[in-house]
């Protein structure tokens, strides 16, 4: 049995409806989100083999304090209790990711049924709790054997992903109705292969650009397999961490710096996926790195396979100016032309600025550029220095303020005509925060990693109240 704070998660959120409530659409999807490597643990159980994050986290100096995801939040063994927590919160949807090396350990061949069985049980628990399962197929845990064969810079990895997508769809497609192919391919390509701060830790502009294209190709090929294997009613999506960009000044040089970053951060995915083309300025900007000959005939037709919705992840904006970035840089082709200035205002424990207007700006951009594509905010949240007080309470007023501000921005965007279908708070649990190890806490449920005790934070109770009343209370 896992140790769980027994107080109802809804207790402090069940406030009387006084004053004005900023109401969301009746069918609005209220969710929370996690990722397999960040919470599951059980790194060597059930036939699972190492992912690139297992290898990276064991490489000295790559992850703070030498932390790994070997145990993480032990969700593999405590999943029913974690689903019960979600039910108490009243969430309608849960966005989880499937561990590729747990399901297909070498990245090739048949699935391991023991791996699939965990996700079958998870889906059954969610449905039994009245929660819609939202499956993400790739949240950065590439099987190490595929990395050893070249990883995402190699074309074959996209084909391996499509095969894996078919295996998972075959196991869960009768019960999971919402599917996301990839989570944040920008991070996988440019942090993993560009500046090396994420797994697998390579530092090559060319490898990053090749990886970005093959991730787009994997998305399109995977979407085609899902469309073939799933019921017609299934929703197929992609999640991008689009960058909200602002020029430091209104000079032509700073505006051009924004254009360069927009090309390599946003349009490198938006254009192939929704328009079947590469951004011409991106190709020109990166001409010294590559001639893009790795893009083969027919690729862009595959990358632009129609999907049903777009997920966006947002945490903070970026202020860009003409200048030079540190090397190695994730900004392939732009390093010698751009610099970043910290935005003003309050900051989270990640040292990220708090600015909900950036989320509104991204949502309205999508309304204008992709008016027929429904949007889900698939990640939004903040890390703060949370701790349990002597009474065992975890008070996190800064997180509550952050969430309130960003949900207000979502409400404003809906009022201004953006087709936002749902909001997934990142994250349900404190977890392994990639290169930061366990030093940063994004969860609305506190995890004592030594005992694995869960404690519902004030922000979870606040979120439960928002869900219960269908909106944000205003006096």
Question: Could you characterize the architecture of this molecule?
Answer:
This protein has 475 residues and is an alpha/beta fold. The chain has helices at residues 36-39, 52-57, 75-89, 100-103, 113-128, 144-148, 156-172, 185-191, 205-229, 252-275, 280-285, 299-303, 357-369, 397-415, 458-469; strands at residues 20-23, 29-33, 93-97, 132-138, 178-183, 235-240, 245-247, 309-313, 318-322, 338-341, 375-380, 420-426, 445-448, 453-456, 471-474. The strands form four sheets. The protein has an eight-stranded parallel barrel. Strands 7-9-10 form a three-stranded mixed β-sheet, covered by helices on one side. Helix 8 packs antiparallel against helix 9 and helix 13 (357-369) runs parallel beside helix 14 (397-415). The longest helix has 25 residues, at 205-229. The protein starts with 19 loop residues before the first strand and ends with a strand. Residues 1-18 have low confidence and may be disordered. Its EC number is 3.2.1.21. It is an enzyme of class 3 (hydrolase). InterPro entries: GH, GH_1_N_CS, Glyco_hydro_1, Glyco_hydro_1_AS, Glyco_hydro_1_beta-glucosidase. GO terms for molecular function: beta-galactosidase activity. Pfam families: Glyco_hydro_1.
């Amino acid at each position: 049995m896992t140790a769980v704070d027994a107080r109802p998660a809804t207790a402090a959120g069940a406030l009387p409806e006084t004053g004005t409530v900023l109401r969301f659409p009746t069918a609005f999807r209220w969710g929370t989100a996690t990722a397999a490597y960040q919470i599951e643990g059980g790194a060597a159980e059930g036939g699972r083999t190492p992912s690139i994050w297992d290898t990276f986290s064991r490489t000295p100096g790559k992850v703070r304090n030498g932390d790994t995801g070997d145990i993480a939040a032990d969700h593999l063994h405590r999943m029913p209790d974690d689903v019960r927590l979600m039910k108490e919160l009243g969430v309608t949807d849960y966005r989880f990711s499937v561990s590729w090396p747990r399901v297909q350990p070498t990245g090739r061949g048949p699935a391991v049924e023991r791996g699939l069985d965990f996700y079958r049980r998870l889906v059954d628990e969610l449905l039994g709790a009245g929660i819609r399962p939202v499956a993400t197929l790739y949240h950065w845990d590439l099987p190490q054997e595929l990395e050893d064969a070249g990883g995402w810079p190699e074309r074959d990895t996209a084909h391996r992903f499509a095969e894996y997508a078919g295996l998972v769809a075959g196991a869960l497609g009768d019960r999971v109705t919402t599917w996301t192919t990839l989570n944040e391919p920008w991070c996988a390509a440019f942090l993993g292969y560009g500046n090396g701060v994420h797994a697998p830790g390579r530092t090559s502009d060319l490898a990053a650009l090749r990886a970005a294209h093959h991730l787009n190709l994997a998305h399109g090929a995977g979407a085609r397999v899902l469309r073939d294997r799933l019921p017609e009613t299934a929703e197929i999506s992609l999640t991008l961490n689009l960058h909200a960009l602002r020029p430091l000044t209104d000079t032509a040089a700073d505006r051009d710096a924004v254009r360069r970053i927009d090309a390599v951060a946003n349009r490198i995915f938006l254009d192939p996926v929704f328009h079947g083309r590469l951004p011409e300025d991106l190709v020109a900007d990166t001409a010294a790195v590559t001639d893009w000959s790795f893009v083969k005939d027919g690729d862009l037709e595959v990358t632009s396979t129609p999907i049903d919705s777009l997920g966006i992840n947002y945490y903070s904006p970026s202020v860009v100016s003409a200048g030079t970035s540190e090397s190695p840089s994730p900004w392939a082709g732009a390093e010698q032309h751009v610099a970043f200035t910290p935005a003003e205002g309050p900051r989270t424990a990640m040292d990220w600025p708090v600015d909900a207007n950036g989320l509104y700006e991204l949502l309205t951009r999508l309304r204008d550029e992709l008016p027929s594509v429904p949007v889900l905010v698939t990640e939004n949240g903040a890390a703060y220095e949370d701790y349990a007080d002597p009474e065992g309470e975890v008070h996190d007023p800064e997180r509550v303020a952050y969430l309130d501000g960003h949900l207000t921005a979502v409400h404003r965007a809906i009022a201004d005509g953006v087709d936002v279908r749902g909001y997934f708070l990142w994250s349900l649990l404190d977890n392994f925060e990639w290169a930061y190890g366990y030093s940063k806490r994004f969860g609305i449920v506190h995890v004592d990693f030594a005992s694995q005790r869960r404690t519902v934070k004030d922000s979870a109770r606040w979120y439960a109240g928002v869900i219960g009343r269908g909106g944000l209370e205003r006096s």
